[in-house]
TrEMBL record:
Originating species: Actinomycetospora rhizophila
InterPro entries assigned: Methyltransf_25, SAM-dependent_MTases_sf
Pfam short name (any one): Methyltransf_25
Protein name in UniProt: Class I SAM-dependent DNA methyltransferase
Keyword list, A-Z: Methyltransferase, Transferase
The UniProt record lists the keyword Methyltransferase: yes
Keyword rRNA-binding: no
């Protein structure tokens, strides 16, 4: 595991050592009830606001957005503050998705394994946003190609990737491969705050889909 500050959270320490989708589902089902208090409140988790803010600047509402790794719906809430978006959510954890559904900001939420092919046709969405999922022990860089596949030409993929793993874990290489294949161009991969209480940063990766 990369040297990433997990604070005092036993859930976050476990999250960075997950062994696969079933392990992830079990952890996040267990964590769902206190997830937002443990992250947004206690850790200064600003990743959802950072990603939603940039998406809203580049793809104003109304736009149709897939929230890949929706969790409890923090991104959906942030997008709703910025416009009238149509948002669908995928996540591996049914308990987390129940929290997302309860926000009232999602058209549909469905259980899905983001390490596999998504149950969505090519070019379905104007944008895909993925926050907190392209990280240690979770979903690897191969998911970026799937996000591009389900985004229409001219659309956007906006994703947070923890800064310490951006290059070492192959995410930068995956982005370069998508560009070389003529599928997407890297607009930006700037460093942004992610968990402010721990001084953890992310790369906010924005891809222009061809």
């Amino acid at each position: 595991m990369a040297d990433i500050d997990t604070g005092s959270s036993p859930f976050l320490r476990r999250a960075y050592d997950l062994t696969g989708p079933e392990d992830a589902a079990a952890l996040y089902d267990e964590w769902a009830e206190t997830y937002e208090a443990d992250t947004a409140a206690s850790m200064g988790y600003v990743g959802p606001a950072v990603a939603a803010g940039r998406l809203a600047e580049l793809a104003p509402a109304p736009a149709t957005v897939l929230d890949a790794g929706a969790g409890t719906g923090l991104v959906g809430v942030e997008l709703a503050r910025r416009g009238d978006y149509t948002v669908d959510g995928f996540d591996v954890s049914p308990a987390m998705l129940e929290k997302a559904r309860a926000t009232g900001h999602y058209r549909h939420v469905d259980v899905a394994d983001l390490t596999a092919r998504l149950p969505v046709a090519d070019g379905t969405y104007d944008a895909v946003v993925c926050v907190g999922t392209l990280t240690e022990g979770h979903v690897g860089p191969e998911a970026l190609a799937e996000f591009v596949r389900v985004t229409r030409p001219g659309g956007l993929v906006v994703a947070t990737i923890l800064d310490p793993i951006w290059e070492p874990k192959g995410y930068r290489a995956a982005v370069d491969a998508l560009a070389e294949a003529g599928r997407a161009d890297l607009r930006e991969a700037d460093e942004h705050p992610y968990r402010t209480a721990q001084d953890v940063t992310c790369r906010l990766v924005v891809l222009d889909v061809r």
